[in-house]
Every structure is written in structure tokens, then in C-alpha cells.
Design goal:
Elements: E1 2-13, E2 16-28, E3 34-48, E4 51-62
Antiparallel strand pairs: 1-2, 2-3, 3-4
């Protein structure tokens, strides 16, 4: 199992921030075969008493580039 995230950008406006990134996870299926999953994520953060806290997260599965099913 592995995980890699690449930040696309972070936008800060006062005590609110938006962080966008793309990630790839390599997993193992129940039958032992490998599975690679690509997704994009956006985190909404707020600064509370000087610390950044995640308020909300969205995750969108990205289709496999080899998948042409539609």
C-alpha cells in the first residue's frame, strides 16, 4: 500500500484557506492483485485560535486513463 499527494495550490484569505491536491493510492485487492486509484481532493480549512483545522473535504475519483467504458 502506498500513497502520494501532490498539492495543486493553496489559497488563503484571512482565516479561511482552500487546499487542492491530486493523489494516487496503490492498494491490494482481496485476490492479491494491485489496484491504483487516482483522485482529486479539496480541503476547506479555518484558522481557529492560531491553528488550521479542516472544516470540510471533498474527494472525486478520477477515471482510470485506460478505462474507455464511458
Amino acid at each position: 500500500v502506498s500513497y502520494e499527494a501532490n498539492f495543486a495550490d493553496v489559497i488563503i484569505r484571512g482565516d479561511t484557506a482552500l487546499a487542492r491536491f491530486n493523489a494516487t493510492e496503490t492498494l491490494t485487492n482481496a485476490d492479491g492483485s494491485p489496484r491504483v486509484v487516482h483522485y482529486a481532493s479539496t480541503d476547506l480549512l479555518v484558522r481557529d485560535s492560531g491553528s488550521w483545522k479542516i472544516l470540510a473535504t471533498t474527494v472525486a475519483l478520477q477515471p482510470d486513463e485506460a478505462d474507455t467504458s464511458g
